[in-house]
Amino acid sequence: MRYIFFISILTIFLSTLGTKNSCQHKQSYTIPKSISLDKLYINHNPAISHSPYGYVSDSFYPIGWSLSGIYFAYIIESHPGAASPPEGYNFQMFIKDATNDSIAWNWSLKNESQFNNYDHRIVYIEEIWAKYKKIFSKSLRNYDIIQLWNNNLLIKLPATINQIRYDAKVAKTMGISTLTNSPEIKAEKVIFSMNGLGNKTVFNRKYEKFGIRNSSVVGLILSPFSRKSVLLKITESRGWEGPPHKLSIELIGCDLINL
């Protein structure tokens, strides 16, 4: 694992030589490949009891990093659980600033009236990408995003990179839900650590309503152009009427050096 970071830098750097000054004019983009949240979550939590009904999961599509190593682009599709499509469906593209963990740009399609042309079918990323590709490509070029052609930059935690061990833990404050009379998360913190170099709280949130059963940081995606990264946090929320429960993803910008 310790060599993944440097191999990734070399591979992508060689493939993008000469593009830095012409990226905004020549870079083209294709539909990104998804990463299975179910497998990541289940493999990261072998000790908990997983529902036999499976999960209703977000679809996560990493696109790529900017040449500056600051911005990371990705897509999240949220799918309806008990609701009939298109209700409950949400398509969002984000460009995240990993330096300050903010959203630099985003685009969404979630209003039911916007799906009239889809005859109330479940909308697929292929249809949306084909219809709005010009908007997506323009914004990705504006931020000099270089598309990653595979998911090899996803590193499961804990991991050792360049002889430094990285890990992230979720500190949870639990409470008892009055609806289900079962323990659920009412506040959580994500603590990112580097062995021998310290640790830092990179995420801190309180929840007004219950419903979150569990939360895990399953891995990180490194920038091949800097020491920036995004942590992948998967949250398991209670289903509308019980199982199957919902898996959603949130990305947290994190610097591997500045703790």
Notes on the structure:
With 259 residues, this protein is of the alpha+beta class. The protein is built from four helices and 14 strands. It has one domain (4-255). The chain has helices spanning 4-15, 23-26, 37-44, 125-142, and strands spanning 55-57, 59-66, 71-78, 90-97, 102-109, 145-147, 154-156, 159-161, 164-176, 183-194, 198-206, 212-222, 228-237, 245-255. The strands form three sheets. It has a five-stranded mixed beta sheet with strand order 1-14-13-12-7, with helices on one face. Strands 5-4-3-2-6 form a five-stranded antiparallel beta sheet, covered by helices on one side. Strands 8-9-10-11 form a four-stranded antiparallel beta sheet, with no helix packed on it.
Layout of strands and helices, then pairs:
Blueprint lengths: L3 H12 L7 H4 L10 H8 L10 E3 L1 E8 L4 E8 L11 E8 L4 E8 L15 H18 L2 E3 L6 E3 L2 E3 L2 E13 L6 E12 L3 E9 L5 E11 L5 E10 L7 E11 L4
Parallel strand pairs: 1-14
Antiparallel strand pairs: 2-3, 2-6, 3-4, 4-5, 7-12, 8-9, 9-10, 10-11, 12-13, 13-14
Keywords, separated by commas or semicolons:
five-stranded antiparallel β-sheet; five-stranded mixed β-sheet; 14 strands; alpha+beta; disordered N terminus; 259 residues
Low-confidence stretches: 1-25
Strand order of the largest sheet: 1-14-13-12-7
Cα Rg: 19 Å
- Beta-strand residue percentage: 35-45%
Instruction: Tell me the count of domains.
Output: 1
Overall 3D form: globular
* Structural class by helix and strand composition: alpha+beta
- The ordered string of helix (H) and strand (E) elements is HHHEEEEEHEEEEEEEEE
Q: Which percent range fits the helix content?
A: 10-25%
